[in-house]
Amino acid sequence: MTRKKTPATAELPEVSVSDDGEVRHLHLGTPWIQGSMRIAEPFAIELEYVQRMMAWLLFVPPESVSKRNALQLGLGAGAITKFCHKLLRMRTTAVELNPQVLGVCRAWFKLPPDGPRLAVVLADAAQHIRRPELAGTVDFLAVDLYDHEAAAPVLDSAEFYADCRALLTDDGCLTVNLFGRASSYDRSLAQMAEAFGEQALWAFKPTREGNTVVLAQRTPSRPKRDELQARAEHIQARWDLPAPKWLRVFKPVAA
């Protein structure tokens, strides 16, 4: 395994990259993997939990996807941003605090340059999402905000999730990667329920690595099983995501 490092700036962790032959990984000051890319398929989503963050596709008509707007908070290795931009053909924005992460993504993870459909903003996510002009404009919001210790989300309050909800269009969805101790997950889920309402929440079972993806709908809905199944099969056929398998481990939080 090879490792490449970039200098750390004040109060931000050192960013490093490691290769294990077929897959490249992003690290923030520790051996924890903060993002991955299969070198031969740079625009596919490699990690299982990141694939699950695309479960919002189950709730929208497939023909509308390319007309929608995606926003990612926390760039990581850029997997969601690249997938939305290159494969879903969406207008895509990512917000990242650490300029090193952006530089590494452009140098080592095939992140395309900014253009008419792609923008990366170097900013504090909590402040950026409060910009009035963004309210009601985001169809898919992905939140994966962890520091170098990866113990619990950096932004995880009911106020933050309310700000996220305000960004969404009427049928928009938020997906969040929750990783950490059970107590951290329960607290996060309670904060999301306060902002969105429990009826708006869906959750996956944890992955083997301990990541639990939770989805929140701006407007709660309960699609019929056959509709979800049809969309899952379409998602797999068109975008090569294992969506039919999701339905076995993805349920509404409220009974």
TrEMBL record:
A GO term, aspect molecular function: transferase activity
Pfam families given in the database record: Spermine_synth
PROSITE patterns: PABS_2 (PS51006)
Residues annotated as catalytic: 144
InterPro entries: PABS (IPR030374), SAM-dependent_MTases_sf (IPR029063)
Keyword Amino-acid biosynthesis: no
Residue ranges of domain PABS in the record: 1-222
Transmembrane as UniProt keyword: no
GO BP term, pick one: polyamine biosynthetic process
Keyword terms of this UniProt record: Polyamine biosynthesis, Transferase
Family indicated by similarity: Belongs to the spermidine/spermine synthase family.
Name recorded for this polypeptide: Spermidine synthase
UniProt organism field: Pulveribacter suum
Biological classification of the source: Bacteria, Pseudomonadati, Pseudomonadota, Betaproteobacteria, Burkholderiales
